Amino acid sequence: MKPLLIAIDGPAASGKGTLAKRLAAHFKLPHLDSGLLYRAVAWAAAHTSRTPEEAAAALEAADLDNPALRTDEAGQAASKVAAIPQVRANLLKFQKEFAHQASGAVLDGRDIGTVICPDAPVKIFVTASLEARVERRYQELRERGADTIKPRVLAEMAERDRRDSERAASPLKAAPDAYHLDTSDMDADAAFAAALAFISSKGFRSSGP
Ligand SMILES: Nc1ncnc2c1ncn2[C@@H]1O[C@H](COP(=O)(O)OP(=O)(O)OP(=O)(O)O)[C@@H](O)[C@H]1O
Ligand SMILES: Nc1ccn([C@@H]2O[C@H](COP(=O)(O)O)[C@@H](O)[C@H]2O)c(=O)n1
């Protein structure tokens, strides 16, 4: 049996990160949140003398645990540098090596099933309506104490969706062989159960308790 490589893509707040973490824990696999790489590049370009391309080439210098990378502003800034082809090219090798380690892996992002691991045996494209995603992100921001309003969250998310889907370089899109998981009316447990059923239909099961 080939190593279990799970490629998860989808728009902002669709729930792909939550699903990726749960699947990684369930199957005891390493997990890469690839959005953090683009967030780190944007942060370095704004706070150091590096260009986005240089920051992407110096990825090992990035602190992916920096809480500043988790804000909505960081997500917007990430989606701007993510449209630069050389930034994407400079992040490719690290992601491909992460994906192809012997243990298998879970990666989530926008181009995982299409560009980073088109050979993954399991590809999941997670979606949810814009309304559901705005509600989730708004609640998340409020819980973190951010001062925001829903119309702003909506406008920013719609803009990020457009930028990520319409850019020429590796746009957000489902791989032809991806399983489409619409989580608009599912909680995180139901999304996890649906993903597990799909993965087991591909012949993969977790080995332990
Ligand atoms: N199926 C679900 N139903 C309801 N809420 C969910 C679901 N999945 C995740 N959430 C919640 O929605 C929010 C966004 O989820 P998550 O961070 O997983 O999305 P994401 O697609 O990785 O977003 P981003 O690309 O912006 O990082 C979180 O607060 C999470 O707890
Ligand atoms: N594989 C990826 C992952 C992310 N991006 C860009 O980064 C932005 C932030 O991503 P989050 O998942 O952390 O929200 C996102 O809007 C994309 O522009 C990407 O291009 N490819």
TrEMBL record:
EC category name: transferase
Reactions accelerated catalytically: CMP + ATP = CDP + ADP; dCMP + ATP = dCDP + ADP
Organism, scientific name: Reyranella soli
Record bears the keyword Transferase: yes
Gene that this polypeptide is encoded by: cmk
UniProt cross-references to InterPro entries, sorted A to Z: Cytidylate_kin, Cytidylate_kinase_dom, P-loop_NTPase
Top-level division of the source organism's lineage: Bacteria
Annotated ATP binding sites: G10, P11, A12, A13, S14, G15, K16, G17, T18
Cytidylate kinase domain boundaries: 57-193
Protein name: Cytidylate kinase
UniProt keyword Kinase present: yes
